[in-house]
Amino acid sequence: MKITRLYAVIPLALAAALASAAVAQDAVVGRSMTAEYATLEAAQNAANGMAGPRTVPGRSIPVPNTASRELQVSIAAPYRVPNWNADPKSPEEWKELVNKLASASAAAQVGIREKLGVTLEPTLIGGVKAFILSPKVIPAVNQNRLLVHVHGGGYVYNPGEAGTGEATLMAAYGGFKVISFDYRMPPDYPYPAAMDDAMAVWKAALGLQNPRNMAIFGTSTGGGMTLAMILRAKQEGLPLPAAIAPGTPWSDLTETGDTYKTNEWLDNVLVSYNGYLSRAAQLYANGRDLKDPMISPIYGDFTGFPPAILTSGTRDLFLSLTVLTHRKLRRAGVEAELQVFEGMSHAQYNFDPYAPETKETFGEIARFFDKHLGR
Amino acid sequence: MKITRLYAVIPLALAAALASAAVAQDAVVGRSMTAEYATLEAAQNAANGMAGPRTVPGRSIPVPNTASRELQVSIAAPYRVPNWNADPKSPEEWKELVNKLASASAAAQVGIREKLGVTLEPTLIGGVKAFILSPKVIPAVNQNRLLVHVHGGGYVYNPGEAGTGEATLMAAYGGFKVISFDYRMPPDYPYPAAMDDAMAVWKAALGLQNPRNMAIFGTSTGGGMTLAMILRAKQEGLPLPAAIAPGTPWSDLTETGDTYKTNEWLDNVLVSYNGYLSRAAQLYANGRDLKDPMISPIYGDFTGFPPAILTSGTRDLFLSLTVLTHRKLRRAGVEAELQVFEGMSHAQYNFDPYAPETKETFGEIARFFDKHLGR
After folding, report:
1. Residue A279 and residue A71: Cα distance in Å, rounded?
2. Crossing angle for the helix pair B31-47 and B12-21, nearest 10 degrees?
3. What are the pLDDT digits (tens) for B204-216?
4. Residues B153, B122 contacting (CB under 8 angstroms)
């Protein structure tokens, strides 16, 4: 696959300064460190002395002490290889990798559900395989409410129970009944299969509950699909949910947005667009224009969207996609809230089910849903 | 001044990879670029293969096309030398630099006010030098409303009319009458002079208008002071305003927060904590603990704070301070909104008075104030 971005040139003077910076040792302080910094500062001022691209030096960035201890563990974690840079050479290789990762994820879900008191019930909704996640007790206020969850994974990862983790967290921390559906994915089923399944689920859900008492939510690909579902429901004249929660949504499958560059190599979940993401985008679009609003919903019309709450992190490769989506919703007159977590990479609020930031994320989404959903 | 942070070691293998990356040319595409990327990817995977700090490579980051053309100009702009890295060696040198920069800023304000139809009237409020900024027409709904503006500039920059730019924008785009006050600053007047002036202004403002019809706002140092004013008003048992808008607040004068590192050298306004910021922090605190909540309000108790709207950008050195402040407000049960702009460095919504993002920033703050202020 062709690498479409151009790797930019690092000025030689700066490269030399960076190489010399490597001589420094953590234990060296005071005068020599000051000299080190002065050299770096001079090189940076020189490299950024004219209008144009920004030159940033290579560096080692510590784990921030401003995140919870649990999140610090996620921030410190190494890149996820092969997840982030997977490059299978055939449909068979894709399926082998996806199934291997999904088995491990699904197995981990069992203990999490048990600990959080959430039950999982396999079902079919609108002919689509799905799971119903229920908390031990559904509060009275949520008895007539129903959430629809769209899992993430770049349109390739997380089939089956592997995709239910976020639904479990929402059921546990929000006290909601949640339908999480197992949409068809590439390489066997490219676009529009996933969206067709999503709309079949939404139509069936409309027969189960009043749309004013329902919300749709999901992270990453699930956030992008949540937005695309609203675009398509508008197009098809279907009732809309009372609220949505697109978490760090993959609202643009092209490499568009500043943090695709600024947070590249810093986000330890997605790492770079040039990993599996660029390949998954092509697999899903299957020759279609990546800027089709049904594939990259940021190019759609957000007028009339339900109230939305968006979540991201300061290290998230999709921070730009999140804030661009938030701004576009606001410009369309939609009530839209934004929450951004310190030091967090892509979708990391779904990683440790017990981290304070995880509880805070779903607590805020639950509060937002409670405000907007009928009873 | 001692540089307190340790410049981290860049692994030699990575430094070598970076130096070799410098050989690439923008015009080279295809196979060699793929090889270049493969080398970088391998080096990055190796450098980030264990739990710990994150290693990021030096690189050139393009100006994003996802910001407005006007904001793109601000994003592309070179570092502001000597503003960001000023290191005056005496009080006289500080004053000479500050006055030189302030003269230029104040001069620029004349044309901006004219273009935006805002008038400036010097006055004294509570014995403090101040300016009243008024739009050409104050809408009926805002006739009995009054805003108090706290200017930014690291407690050293922007004395006099140089500090009124943001108040002009709020008057113009929000249709409010705004008091912007000229608090005393180091080197002559360290803490608590600025805060004493701020409280004198707030007490005097309470004699001019019902606090339910007032809001306090400001950016950077002005955002930090806005928060500290609420802490001190609580402490002194004074009425609180109906809303606040701390923009990218300097809520922690120590180098605490992940984006102090991750956005270092990327933010073209503040650039690095090790520039004038660290020196200004010491000048202001004048030997006091930088973590005193009246100096770094993030260490204070936010319970009972008025509704708040916070603004930042994805390249902002203070993005972490903004989101940490937002989260702390939310955890204290305060209604708090967050808006983050694509590609924006620190406080850049105040830079081009006519950029769409500038109008959007103040439009959102005005909407928020309109929602929360009495009439």
Report:
1. 29
2. 160
3. 999 999 999 999 9
4. no
DSSP letter, residue A163:
G
Distance CA B265, CA A54 (A): 8
Question: Where do the H-state alpha helices sit in chain B?
Answer: 12-21, 31-47, 69-76, 91-116, 165-174, 193-206, 221-236, 259-262, 276-285, 319-331, 356-372
| B41 reaches A (C-beta below 8 A) | yes
- What are A150's strand-pairing partners? A181, A218
On the question of pLDDT at A312 being above 50, the answer is: yes
In this structure, the number of other CB atoms found within 10 A of the CB of residue A209 comes to 18
pTM of the entire structure? 0.93
Distances (CA, A) of A8 to A51, A106, A114, A273, B28: 16, 40, 49, 15, 10
Other beta carbons within 10 angstroms of residue A107's beta carbon come to 11
Percentage helix, strand, coil for chain B under 3-state DSSP, each rounded to 5: 45, 15, 40
List the single residue in A with minimal CA-CA distance to B329.
A339
**A342, A345, A358: best to mutate for the B interface, most B CBs within 10 A:** A342
| pLDDT at res. A225 | 98
Strand partners, A243: A215
Q: Contacts of residue B60 in chain A, CB cutoff 8 Å?
A: 8-10, 53-56
Contact by Cβ (8 Å): A179, A201: yes
Q: What is the pLDDT of residue B30?
A: 53
Write down the ipTM of this complex: 0.92
In this structure, chain B runs to a length of 375
A213 touching B, CB under 8 A?
no
Residue numbers in B near A19 (CB within 8 A) = 15-16, 18-19
B207 within 8 A of B173, measured Cβ to Cβ? no
Work out the burial of residue B198: count CB atoms within 10 Å of its CB; fewer than 13 is exposed, 13-18 middle, 19 or more buried: buried
Task: Write the burial class of residue B287 (CB in 10 Å: 0-12 exposed, 13-18 middle, 19+ buried).
Answer: exposed
d(CA B341, CA A371) in angstroms, rounded, equals 26
Question: Shortest Cα distance from A181 to chain B (angstroms)?
Answer: 31
- Candidate from B10, B25, B342 with C-beta closest to A60: B10
Please give the pLDDT value at position B7. 38
3-state secondary structure of A141: helix
Distance CA B242, CA B324 (A): 22
The two three-digit tokens of residue B354, written as one number: 């006519």
Helix residue ranges per DSSP H, B251-312? 259-262, 276-285
Q: How far apart are CA B272 and CA B29, in angstroms?
A: 34
Q: Is A16 in Cβ contact with B19 (below 8 Å)?
A: yes
Minimum Cα–Cα distance from B368: chain A residue: A335
DSSP A238-265: PPPPSEEEEES-----SS-STHHHHTTT
From chain A residues 16-35, the ones with a CB under 8 A of any chain B CB are 16, 18-19, 21-22, 24-26, 29-30, 33-34
Residue B316 φ/ψ region, left for φ over 0, alpha for ψ in the -120 to 50 degree band, beta for the rest? beta
